[in-house]
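Translate structure to sequence.
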């Protein structure tokens, strides 16, 4: 049956809403990660999730967000770590990577360095209350500016989750280089969301040996690069 519009009026057919598939996929991916994070935290009685915008070192609007525990295991296979290795997280936040390193790997010791006292205190509580069994019980959490922190000369594996950028990133790399020069040794750098990849490769002393890129990662965000440096290079 045909229906004519009233005199002097026009009907506009409603268009079907456009569905942007990339946005839908991103939403589904975010929902899956949220569910996984909640299950992880409930199981181990910790609080490491959430997005926290920093009010210091914030020239480029860097915020804290925990790395996926699955991503760390893929980038750093447990079988590649020995009891002689020492792990440090520069920008450890609420301590997820520190807890994962201590629980999954046989590190001689695990260190987390965080600038913001509130995040540092949460990490301390997580370490004290977690139900996870830690393979490495020598864990140290430090609340300090990474620019003033002297990197121990036994650290062999460095982890960064896009915690610093620009000139500050250059200072951190210079501190790692100074530690290497004091005691040359094999080093690995596990860098999540490696936005300063060109800076690292431009030093000429690091080589990229592994790339872990989730299917839904866009560009460098969400990817993890692993670099190596050794006295032989």
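Result:
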């Amino acid at each position: 049956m045909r229906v004519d519009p009233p005199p002097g009026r026009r009907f506009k057919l409603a268009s079907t809403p456009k569905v942007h598939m990339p946005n839908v996929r991103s939403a589904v991916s975010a929902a899956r990660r949220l569910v996984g994070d909640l299950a992880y935290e409930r199981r181990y009685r910790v609080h490491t999730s959430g997005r926290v915008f920093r009010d210091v070192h914030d020239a480029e609007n860097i915020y804290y967000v925990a790395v996926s525990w699955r991503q760390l295991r893929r980038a750093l296979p447990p079988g590649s770590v020995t009891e002689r290795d020492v792990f440090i997280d520069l920008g450890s936040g609420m301590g997820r990577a520190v807890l994962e390193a201590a629980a999954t790997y046989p590190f001689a010791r695990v260190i987390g360095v965080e600038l913001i006292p509130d995040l540092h205190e949460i990490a301390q509580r997580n370490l004290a209350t977690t139900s996870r069994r830690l393979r490495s019980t020598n864990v140290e959490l430090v609340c300090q500016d990474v620019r003033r922190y002297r990197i121990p000369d036994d650290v062999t594996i460095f982890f960064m989750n896009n915690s610093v950028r620009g000139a500050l990133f250059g200072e951190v790399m210079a501190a790692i280089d100074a530690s290497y020069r004091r005691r040359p040794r094999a080093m690995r750098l596990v860098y999540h969301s490696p936005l300063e990849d060109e800076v690292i490769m431009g030093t000429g002393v690091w080589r990229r040996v592994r790339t872990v890129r989730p299917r839904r990662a866009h560009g460098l965000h969400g990817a993890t690069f692993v670099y190596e440096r050794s006295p032989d290079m």
